[in-house]
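Before relying on records like the one below, remember that each one covers exactly one chain. Contacts with other chains, cofactors or solvent are not represented anywhere in the record.
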Amino acid sequence: MKYCILLIFAFSLAGCSKEKTDDVLLELDRVKLKENLNYDRILFYKFAKIALRANAVQDTTLKEYQLFSASSKNLLSNLNNVKVDSGQDISAIDALRMYQDYRNVKKFVKVTDEDIFPTLIESFNTLYGEKGTQNTLLSGESKVYNQNVEHAILSVATLAAKSFGPELALYECSKTQPENLKDSEEKTLLEFIRGFLFFSNNLLYLSEDGFSRNITWLEKNKQIPLPFTKAFFGWRNLSDKQANIGFHGMNCLFRGMDRLRMERKIDEERALNDFELFINDAHKLGLESELVWMVESYLYLKREKPELAVVPLGKLKNSPLLSNSEKEAIEKTIIYSKNRETGDKLNGVYDKAIISKIATKYMFSILAKIDWETLLREKGVPNTKEIFATLRKYDTIAKKVESYSESKILDDGKKTLEDKGRGLLEDAKNLLNR
């Protein structure tokens, strides 16, 4: 209901003007993001995180704690006992119990902000620290900052765990509040990853907003060390000044991608200006890649310079990132560019969809190569080992629990539980009837 009211309010604002403003469109994206995060895979992940964080609560009279202390015992027990490296699996009984726990509190999970609970690190201290020790919990600005850092690290960690998919990284990104992080390389890289995930989920105005902040910061901090950025893009041979130029270009590129997919006429012109900034930065560094060739050829065609577009198009059509059909489209565009009369319009052979597709493929190919756990550990990020170990345990548990769709629970329960007593089988039946 809250999201519906926000949506109606945002549309009302949009209707008050002849053209939707940047601020109105940004607010619509914020509403859409919340709606995109409202489904089972993310909600079960959120359930697991709340269970962990509630475990560190010291005031056990809190109603939120009392609800989750009853519903999280099975999950916490399995997180503590599962040894993923040994190949140990979750039993059908445990999976069934956890699925039931989740269903019991699903409505509460939907409307509860996990950040009302202690931080994850405080939860780890409670779970694995010395028994009987009670540490003072973080509060105020210190808690806000530390949980923001946790969301930032988990944005990267869930993106690194390929079995999770980008949706959990999107959830963690949605929980970050960049304004509560200190200006730094880490914050800027998080904004870039966040912006790319928003772009991939068609949240164009949220994405554009983050890239714009990055561009402003990079233009003001041209000499700052960028070790994480170099590792991220594989630019270890570049100086910090060169890395700044390259990263500035990548932010301009994806802000341009956002704007290219927007509806207003002004956005397309802004996109072309961003592409020009990207190409200038790439040329300063002598960079050669699919992104450079793609944007260069598109920009030349749009700027009425078809003869200059032929060379980058020729390089692009041999890229392994392109499918056969895309290569055919590029070949047709080369022919089209050679024969094109000044003033002709692009005929759709080489359009926005292909540009977005190649850009997305390129970024995911970069992300797939990064060993985030090793990188974060080498850079001294606290509790990296514990965070990734917990994620692997969660992944094992989630896959087993997800297999218990309502159509499968009873069948799997019968096979596994018949020798465990009729009471457990009745539990499986009762679960379906709730």
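Confidence is low (pLDDT under 50) at residues 3-18, 417-422.
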